[in-house]
Known about the structure:
Elements: H1 3-29, H2 33-51, H3 54-58, E1 61-63, E2 85-89, E3 101-105, E4 124-127, H4 133-136, E5 141-146, E6 149-150, E7 156-157, H5 163-171, E8 177-182, E9 203-205
Parallel strand pairs: 1-2, 1-5, 5-8, 8-9
Antiparallel strand pairs: 2-3, 3-4, 6-7
Amino acid sequence: MTLSSIAKKNIAKKKSALRTEMRHTLQYASCTKEKLRDIATYSLRICQRIRATHWWRYAHTVIAYHAYKDEPDVSSLSRDTTKRIVFLPRTLAHPHSIGALCKVLNTPRIESSDIKHYSTPSWTIKPTSKINTTLLLSSPCLLLVPGRAFDITRARLGRGGGVYDALMSLLCVSNMCSCVGLCFAMQVVPYVPVEAHDSTVHAIITERSLY
Length: 211
């Protein structure tokens, strides 16, 4: 076994341990109705912080996501989509691919076979066949990226499927697209182990701070 392969295994173990730690932390943070209300409040604060950034102000296109119950819920941003198109990555069926992007419509329901995977869905989504990156990156674009953990160097730990790393590498090669990580303050840790294929974000927003 080479030194390189040993190092990769060590990093993989550290990632796995951090994912487990974050899962337990987030499970505890959402284990009661009172704590779930706190999580909902934190999500609204994060959305307020997003709206206050220059990235949001100047973006023509915003790529958001449907939140799991332990992720910041950004569905309230759909109220501000009159002048921009918002997409959702649909990735659960193919965890190792980017999947189709979905256009958001301002209606209080969701039409998707993946509805069971999402918490309190509030957007209607319609799948599209492919990503037109030329059109997408012809004007300022904002990609909102969830994660299991982030550190102050803006390194990100995802769920392990590599979906957002692929999406960021596709979109963030352009100066037109800004990638902003979203998480709760409890998910910002001193150090996130990274590998060569891992992408970093341009900024991190929590309910307390912008890094």
